[in-house]
Design a protein that fits this description.
Helix content of chain B: 10-25%
Order of helices and strands of chain B: EHEEEHEEHHE
Number of strands of chain A: 18
Protein name (chain A): Aldehyde:ferredoxin oxidoreductase
Largest interface: A-B, 34 and 27 residues
Strand order of the largest sheet of chain B: 1-7
Number of helices of chain A: 26
Cofactor (chain A): [4Fe-4S] cluster; tungstopterin
CATH architecture of the largest domain in chain A: 4-Layer Sandwich
Largest sheet of chain A: 6 strands, mixed
CATH class of chain B: Alpha Beta
GO molecular function (chain A): 4 iron, 4 sulfur cluster binding; electron transfer activity; metal ion binding; oxidoreductase activity, acting on the aldehyde or oxo group of donors, iron-sulfur protein as acceptor
Helix content of chain A: 40-55%
Structural class of chain A: alpha+beta
Shape of chain A: globular
CATH topology of chain B: Alpha-Beta Plaits
Pfam families (chain A): AFOR_C, AFOR_N
Distance between the termini of chain B: 10 Å
Structural class of chain B: alpha+beta
Oligomer: heterodimer
CATH superfamily of the largest domain in chain A: Aldehyde ferredoxin oxidoreductase, N-terminal domain
Number of helices of chain B: 4
Organism (chain A): Desulforamulus putei DSM 12395
CATH class of the largest domain in chain A: Alpha Beta
Number of domains of chain A: 3
Strand content of chain A: 5-15%
């Protein structure tokens, strides 16, 4: 079959026996699941037996691109890694931009599926048709920066690399996969790579991607570029500040969690905000493949204790996790902490969350100075950095904290479960849902646990000019459901979520159908059905893995403890009402199981 | 003549995509006449024929396959892939196709699509 947009091939690599196989992408599979997240969900659901150890050889790692990946569509850099998460024991898809997706596509594959486990450390080398396992003993123990450098020196600067650091090698549950400056951060995909003795993948592709209707595609892409350029976010604030553009807005709205979600408004913002980041640390704009937004900002510390340390970002989530979450007001320390997480290969959002958790444990007496080795109080920047270093190096208390807040709180006990701010085992990010109720429902029903990237009602509840009432439950279930379905589509196409700020679904449909020529993609309604199908499939995956119905919830603190001050003072999240309505709208039963009629309608 | 400001380049490689799309109607960075060379984590280097006045490439060609007509024009039949033109380039231009023939910018018939599409204005037409 002649493919447009798609590469049309899937590469299966088995690390246990060193064999690989190239299979045709089935047209029905593409039409039913698009690509990216949807394609990976269908592969994992079919091939992974339920109940397997996420860190056992049976688990799969699926690196999947979408049909738009590696084209000229604005922000079409994205790809996902999907696996069964060692952090949650459930579905995980972790998304990143950069250039890895483009290179995999240019090498001629829509997805790379890694199975089994190598006896010795290896990396996978892909050069178009040529696929090899190479020994990685000399790379084992190296951080991600050194690993990239060594592999690029060996193979050439045009080769794209994704690697784990020492955290992935140790199979820490918070381990990420790092590709140049981008991270497949959340959920512990790096630990799965480590469990397979897979240090890196190295890719070089020289093939082309075809366009079905050239002139139409060019016209739609031109229109899309124009929309992105004139939109006040994508063409303005985000382009200037990066993802930290929202920092002051979020804090002023009282939904910026402080000291492990005990407060909702940070007072240390004289030295930590988007303006300081821009004026004091910003060096240069960086962009992912085909992205005119360039939200990635190279930041570097010029003087002081953290001199010379750099990162692309720091992203809003990490300015929070190593800022307000730990009570730290030094942006230089945030940059250093993010640098460490990139180097050792860790999820910086979760790492900051778990350090804040440990601080609360210390202040409440559940962790002692003896156990930690030093006092660990909120606002103590040096102690925060020490703890991040301990997590990175797998030393002392860091060893425990690197397994995430749920596991750490279970081990520590003493009532610390109450301070573990996670959903389904994944650490919560940088928004307090007591000041934005929809965000609470989004956290509770995200298919990979406590994450803001399956629906982000913050845009409507906090940032928009015509805001939805953040303290109302009205329309929230409906909104979250439809945004989750839409984002499942975006994550399957290879576009970035930020594109949806500027582009309508109609414009995305225009680019996609002109590119692929596939009839089944020619309307927004059809794509939304695919999105709903994908979101139901990841739900089925989670239920099959034994997810308890009661786990669609929030940490007790957000349901019972009122915030004392700020715009959200006196509020708790009325989750039950929204959740009930959400299940009804999704046609799921009261235990959150999709009803047979819905599954039949979706062809599942 | 094209001018490049590498400090402005974000490394998005939209120019590469546009160039291969314009000339070959497909996305294929290997066919692009412009390349953003990665020196990650350092700054990108923009590689393209700048249509400079020195024209060392034309003088260096033993086959007489190169002429100048606002840009460097390659006579495909005369070119024997010797690579002398690229060796002579003072800007380090070195892009070749799969037959090792040089990939000079042809200005997209004066439309300069890479200039039109570059979102950070890192590539400009001389004098603009």
């Amino acid at each position: 079959m002649q493919w447009f947009g798609y590469a049309g091939k899937l590469l299966y690599v088995n690390l246990s026996n060193g064999n690989y196989e190239v299979k045709e992408l089935a047209p029905e599979q593409a039409k039913k699941y698009l690509g990216g997240k949807g394609l990976a969900a269908s592969i994992l659901y079919d091939r992974l037996q339920p109940g397997q150890d996420p860190l056992g050889p049976e688990n799969l790692l699926v690196f999947a691109t979408g049909p738009l990946t590696a084209t000229l569509a604005p922000t079409s850099s994205r790809m996902i890694v999907a696996t069964k998460s060692p952090l949650t024991g459930l579905w995980l898809d972790s998304n990143a931009g950069g250039f890895l997706g483009r290179e995999i596509k240019f090498a001629g594959y829509d997805a790379l599926i890694v199975e089994g486990k190598s006896l010795e450390p290896v990396y996978i080398l892909i050069e178009d048709d040529r696929v090899e396992l190479r020994p990685a003993n000399n790379l084992w123990g190296k951080d991600t920066f050194e690993t990239h450098q060594t592999l690029k020196e060996l193979h050439g600067p045009d080769y794209r690399v994704a690697a784990i650091g020492q955290a992935g090698e140790r199979m820490d549950k918070l381990a990420a996969i790092i590709s140049e400056a981008r991270a497949f951060g959340r959920g512990g995909a790096g630990a799965v790579m480590g469990s397979k003795n897979l240090k890196a993948i190295v890719v070089r592709g020289t093939r082309g991607i075809n366009i079905a209707d050239y002139q139409k595609f060019v016209d739609y892409v031109k229109e899309a570029f124009n929309e992105v350029a004139i939109h006040p976010d994508t063409g303005g604030g985000r382009n200037h500040y990066g993802t930290s553009v929202i920092y002051s807005f979020i804090n002023e709205a009282g939904v910026h969690p402080v000291e492990n979600f005990r407060k909702g408004k940070f007072t240390g913002t004289d030295t930590i905000n988007e303006e300081v980041l821009r004026s004091k640390y910003y060096k240069k704009d960086k962009a992912c493949s085909s992205c005119p937004i360039a939200c990635s900002k190279l930041a570097k510390v010029d003087e002081g204790k953290y001199q010379g340390k750099f990162t692309e970002g720091p992203e809003y989530e990490d300015v929070w996790s190593f800022g307000a979450q730990c009570g730290n007001t030094d942006l230089g320390a945030v940059i250093y902490a993010e640098y460490l997480c990139d180097a050792y290969g860790l999820d910086a959002t979760s790492v900051g969350n778990v350090v804040g958790f440990a601080m609360e444990c210390f202040e409440q007496g559940a962790l002692t100075e003896e156990e930690i080795g030093y006092p660990l109080r909120f606002g103590d920047t040096e102690a925060m950095i020490k703890t991040v270093e301990a997590i990175c190096q797998g030393q002392g208390i860091g060893k425990l904290l690197a397994q995430g807040v749920r596991y750490a709180s279970e081990q520590i006990g003493k009532g610390s479960e109450k301070w573990a701010m996670h959903v389904k085992g994944m650490e919560l990010p940088a928004y307090d849902p007591r000041g934005a109720f929809g965000m609470g429902l989004a956290y509770a029903t995200s298919d990979r646990g406590g994450c803001h990237l399956r629906s982000w009602p913050i845009a409507q509840e906090v940032l928009a000019a015509n805001r939805m009432d953040p303290f109302s439950v009205e329309f929230k279930a409906e909104f979250i459901k439809s945004e989750q379905d839409l984002i499942a589509v975006i994550d399957s196409l290879g576009l970035c979520l930020f594109a949806t700020f500027a582009l309508s679904l109609k414009q995305i449909v225009g680019m996609l159908s002109a590119l692929t020529g596939i009839q089944e993609f020619n309307s927004g309604e059809k794509l939304m059905v695919i999105g709903e199908r994908i979101y139901n499939l990841t739900r089925l995956f989670n239920l099959r893995e034994g997810m308890a119905p009661a786990s669609d919830t929030l940490p007790e603190r957000l349901l019972t403890e009122q915030l004392a001050e700020g715009p959200a003072a006196g509020q708790v999240v009325p989750l039950d009402i929204m959740l009930k309505e959400y299940y009804t709208i999704r046609h799921w039963d009261e235990a959150g199981r999709p009803l047979p009629a819905k599954l039949e309608e979706l062809g599942l | 003549m094209l001018t490049v400001n590498e400090k402005l380049c974000t490394g998005c490689r939209i120019c590469e995509q546009v160039c291969s799309m314009e000339h070959h109607r497909e996305f294929n960075a290997g066919l692009s006449r412009i390349k953003i060379a990665s020196k990650w984590p350092e700054e990108e280097k923009v590689i393209l024929c700048r249509q400079c006045k020195a024209q060392s490439c034309i003088k260096a060609c033993p086959q007489g396959a190169l002429t100048f007509n606002g840009f460097v024009v390659l006579d495909n039949d005369r070119c024997d892939s010797c690579g002398k033109c690229l060796e002579a380039c003072p800007f380090g231009f070195n892009l070749k196709d799969k037959e090792n023939k040089p990939l000079f910018c042809d200005t997209c018939q004066g439309n300069y699509q890479c200039v039109n599409w570059c979102p950070s204005k890192a590539i400009r037409k001389g004098g603009e």
